[in-house]
Design goal:
The complex is a heterodimer.
Chain A (H helix, E strand, L loop, with lengths): L1 E5 L9 H5 L4 E3 L5 E3 L2 E2 L4 H10 L5 E4 L1
Antiparallel strand pairs in A: 1-4, 1-5, 2-3
Chain B lengths: L3 E5 L3 H12 L5 E6 L14 H4 L4 H8 L11 E4 L3 E5 L4 E4 L4 E3 L2 E4 L3 E3 L11 E2 L4 H10 L5 E5 L3 H12 L3 E5 L7 H4 L1 H13 L3 E3 L4 E8 L10 E8 L4 E3 L2 E4 L3 E3 L15 E2 L12 E3 L4 E4 L7 E3 L4 H19 L12 E6 L2 E7 L6 E7 L8 E7 L2 E8 L3 H14 L3 H5 L3
Parallel strand pairs in B: 1-2, 1-7, 2-3, 7-19, 9-16, 10-11, 10-16, 11-12, 18-20
Antiparallel strand pairs in B: 4-5, 5-6, 8-17, 13-14, 14-15, 20-21, 22-23, 23-26, 24-25, 25-26
Helix pairs in contact in B: 1-8
Classes of the chains: A alpha+beta, B alpha/beta.
The structure holds flavin-adenine dinucleotide and iron/sulfur cluster.
Chain lengths: 63, 420
Amino acid sequence: MNTIDVDRSLCDNHGQCAIAAPAVFRMNAEGILEYEATVEDALLDEVEEAIDVCPVQAIFLKN
Amino acid sequence: MARRIIVAGASMGGLRAAEQLRAAGWDEEIVVVGDEAHPPYNRPPLSKELLAAPGSAEEALASVLLRQRRSAADIQWRLGTAVAAADLAARTVTLAGGEELAYDGLVVATGLRPARVPVPGPRHGRHVIRRLEDALGLHRELAPGARVVVVGSGFIGCEAAATAVSLGCRVTLVEGSGGPMERPLGKRLSDGVRSFLRRRGVKCVPQQRVVEFLAGDAAGGYDDGTHLRCAGVRLADGTEVPADVVIEAVGSHPNTEWLRGNGLDLSDGVLCDGSLRVVGAGHVVAVGDIARYPDRRTGTGARRVEHWATPADTAKIAAPALVAGLNGTGAPEPAAPLPSFWTDIFAVRIQGVGSPAPADRIDVLEGDPDRPEDGAALGYYRAGRLIGAVTSALPADKQLHYRRLVTDAGIPADSRLAAV
Ligand SMILES: Cc1cc2nc3c(=O)[nH]c(=O)nc-3n(C[C@H](O)[C@H](O)[C@H](O)COP(=O)(O)OP(=O)(O)OC[C@H]3O[C@@H](n4cnc5c(N)ncnc54)[C@H](O)[C@@H]3O)c2cc1C
Ligand code: SF4
């Protein structure tokens, strides 16, 4: 299983991850990030994109 | 023998290109040559958080180093080494020490360097912000109470002015011919940003340019024997603004000199087609700030996009195009990435999507652009079509909403056909 961890002390709620991987990351109506803690292999490409576009490098993937 | 792709430039563009080459299936050699001593690092903090509080040099570097994909593990890095020249017909590059390296494919990712204000005056005591060392050196001079003059009111000038105020400096912003960030934001929001900067203590001087750097005595002098340092600026109307620190933020020049003599169009960066292939060269692509490519979304011709998102966006198109060319397979469809940018000024985030600059009409979509710190959104239209949107101090889901509107407005049909 692939686990996703966003370091909330870094995350600035930029929302770029939600554009790159909408199936995994969402911005709620308060503008705060919500995300899936685990993802299937099929979504790994999207998650890597999200990691690339996060301006503060807050997203970590363990598999 | 394994084939080799050389990537010139080891910043974000070079790194993303190398990673995307692996993602496109290139499992042969990749050599990344960069003139900076550090592995690729992130530049936005250099005018913001890192300029405000860098910590030690090691801490500063650690805070901005870019994480690399696992697939980048076997890339060969030649750091601290400039590419001096290229012979695209012979497919070789010459490194600064004289070493010649042959390549099968080449990625141009040498980015930009800051422009300097072309007026007379002492050289010492003037700063630019592009590299980590620039930010560390400037931070040391931004002592509380220091008088700072920032020349130029683009993103980096406005951010540096805000950071200097937050450190307790007394800051004058000499705007130049356009208002604060006027080119990317348009006049309406630019005027609002000026009011905001003033409310927070920046002394904005609109419609003025610097005609001379004033000379002052440098206690102790410099290694090169000079005893003069920049002690302020003279403006076009004759006003003298004294300063302890001068920051030049007047735009940048593409680092294309090493490509000269190959018959390329280097008039502003490197001219590319819609797949980021360099026009007039075989098996050469460009990524990042240096690439000038057709803006099919606005249909306004080729231009460079100097934003943080550009290296990743362009690498995703350029890398598969280069690999397809080298393998003789069909080129992938040219893509039209949607540009996006952000800037942080006194903790107010302004985010943009699309291409606001060529707009012929700007509408306020919500809020009051005169008070950008309280939340505002603007829409940018060209021939009636929404080509860009900018939000200020609004939550990210709002930004995503406006982004969707710009995406839905699509690419004009005629420019789809006109793609190079
Ligand atoms: C201070 C600052 C703040 C910014 N803030 C933001 C922001 O808030 N939001 C945003 O969207 N964008 C921002 N940007 C823009 C963003 O950082 C750039 O778009 C991005 O760095 C472009 O990456 P690049 O790899 O194309 O070019 P560069 O980062 O310029 O990298 C080019 C590399 O090539 C090297 N090089 C040059 N010539 C040679 C040669 N002949 N041989 C070998 N190596 C060479 C250079 O030294 C450099 O390391 C900011 C930029 C700066 C400088
Ligand atoms: S892109 Fe990064 S900073 Fe922005 S919401 Fe996602 S994790 Fe947070």
